Structures are given as structure tokens and as C-alpha cells.
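Revision sheet: C-alpha cells.
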Amino acid sequence: MHCRMLRVVVLLGLLTFASSNELLAEVNWPAWRGPLGTGISDATDLPVTWNASNIRWKTQLPGRGQSSPVVWGDNIFLTAAEGDGRQRIVMGLDRVTGELLWQEVAWTGEPEPTHKMNTFASATCATDGEVVVAFFGRGGIHAYDLTGKKLWSRDLGLFEGPWGTGASPILVGDLVIQNCDADDKASIIGLDKRTGKTVWETQRERLRGWSTPLVVETSERTEIVVNGENGVNAYDPVTGDELWFCKGDRGRGTPTVTRYEDILVAVSGRPGDMFAMHPGGSGTVNATHEVWRTTRKGGRDLPSPIVVDKYLIVVSLQPGIATCYDVVTGQELDKIRLEGNFSASPIAAQGLVYIPNEAGDVYVLEPGQKLKVVAKNQVAPSDEEVFRASITPSQGELLLRSDRVLYCVKR
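Predicted:
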């Protein structure tokens, strides 16, 4: 396809993407952290407290994984891995009953090294109702229709590094965009969602990373914003060109960038800095677009931050400390100790924040000048399951995935 025509197609797709965001937020949860990539749901009827009687259904999953469920209509899409990572699986389930509708082996081969806290199926699928895209690092990237028919597959490299992969794909118009950070070769790539062919690829620093890109709409343009080892980069979704860079201090850019109005917030995975910036810059923007920067105390961070009514909530991996900041100024307002370790990222609805620890205890927090624990709910009283996937809200219910089981919790 001629380059100019391809750009027109991508731009038209971006317009469709922007206009459909409101509808998506009401009906579907199509990607990591929802339709806007911020973890915010407009649901008003989610359960706040529950016990075993509120579990509508639970489904044993083939293999292990910690990708989060995505929902389109009455379809749930998940990934898993079997045979110590030698088989990578994509599956579809019925949202109403939890029945496994289809499962397909996307890839077989010799697995790459991974961290003991990671799995070989940690990246969350992305869907737009036409395609379902799943990424497995060395196991490639694959697209299916909603019934499980494979549309295409791509090998994106070896992804050398000791800790595996975790960045999820996103769909932006007619593009699949994937962060491919790794020690041997690092890039961000845009693929045609219908064919898998490369539209653009932009090299990044050869450093491992796990951050999922965030789509940021401004009054002037669309930006693809990605956290990384040394800071935050923004890219043009049409061309892949780098637009700006905001330098960080501590590295391990695992958490995904989040947004509140015209403020973007990035958390370093290592103990250290957290910083905020405005989109829309050019070149290195620390001097022109940085809003604030603050030093955090505590352990490593895997969870991505979330903002509710100007309150920025950051939860540390270990120990489990929830800290509340003013998102406009970066001022710390309050912090509380939570029990357990936290790998999942929070979601928010009804002015409340939901986050599970690795044991399956779900904390419901009310942000404010003082953080309040509204509820603590147990999903599964079992030492054999680990909860590192984020919660998915769906039509008044919550979908919670352990490494082996998917649960549906009703009011």
C-alpha cells in the first residue's frame, strides 16, 4: 500500500477510535486497564462487599497465566501457558456462564527465561470487536476473530532478558501497537490489525521493560506514551516518530503511565522518583512540561497508579503500602499499610479503588485527604492460587483471575 494512502487509513482509524471511546467505556473492557487505559470504569453498580455466596461462577483455566480478562459484549478473552511455557494459549469464554467457548494454541517452542513472579502469559489481550490480539514475547503476537479463528501471527524476536515480558498490546484505529522492550533489541512497533504487516517500527534503548502504551488525546494530536527504564517517551501513532521524552531517575519503568486531564503521571518500578508532565511537548521536556517530581519511600512497584477525583493512588508491591497524593501538586496526603504483596494494578469505579493482593484479598479504598479502607473481601481461601491479574468490571460484576482460575463476583 502506498505510504500516503496508508497514513490516511490510519488517521481515519484514529478518528473512529476517538469517537467510540465513550461507547466502549459503557459496554466493554477491551484492553489492559480498560477502554481509556487508565483503569477507570463508569460502572455504578459494582459489588463493594462480598463473600462466597456472591461468586456467580468460577472456571478452571487451561494452563497458568496472569493476563487480565478483557470483555467485548458477552465474550471474555484470556491467555495462558502450558508445559512450562512451551505452549501459549488464547481462549474465549462466555461472560454470563463462564463456559470455555474456544481455546487455541498460538505458539509452541522452547520458552525464554522468566522471573519466578512472572508467567509466560502475562500480557493482556486487546480487542475492538473485530480482532483479538495476544502477545507472548518470544511466543510472538497473534490475532484471532471473536470465534477463535486465527487471522495472522508474527515473530517479534527473542526478547532476551532474565525476567520475561508483560507489556500488553493496544489497538489504535487500524493499528496494533506493541512495546517490545528487551535487553537484546528494543522497539515499539505498529502493525496492521488485519494482516499483521509492519506499518512502522521505532527503535528504543536496549533495556528490558514491561510498560503498556497509553493513548493520549490532546486538542492537537494523538500521542502514544510509554514508560521505560530511563523515563517516558511519546510517539506519533501514524508514523511511529518520537515526539518527546521526559527523563526519570530510577528506572524499571514497569508501571503504565496514567492520566488526569492534561497531567500524565509516571512511577518508577524501583524505589525513587514519581513525576508528572503535560503532553504535547517536543524533544526533552523536563524543563518545559514537567509539572512536579517527588521521591517515594518503600519497596519496588509493579502496580500502575490510578487517579480518582484529583487523588492519585499508588500501591507498592512489597510491603503493601497505599499512598494518596494530590495529582495536581504531587503533595503526599496520606498512606496506609495493607496486608500482603501487590502485583495487580488498581481499578476505580463509584469513587472507590479496587485492588487485590496476591493472596486474593480485594481491598476497596476510598480516596481522600485520608485514605479509608471501605472493605476487604476474600475471593478464594487457597494457598494454591496467586492473584497478579487486575480486576475487570463487567456489567455490574467483577472478573478476577488467579493464575489458574477465573471468578465472576456479583452483587
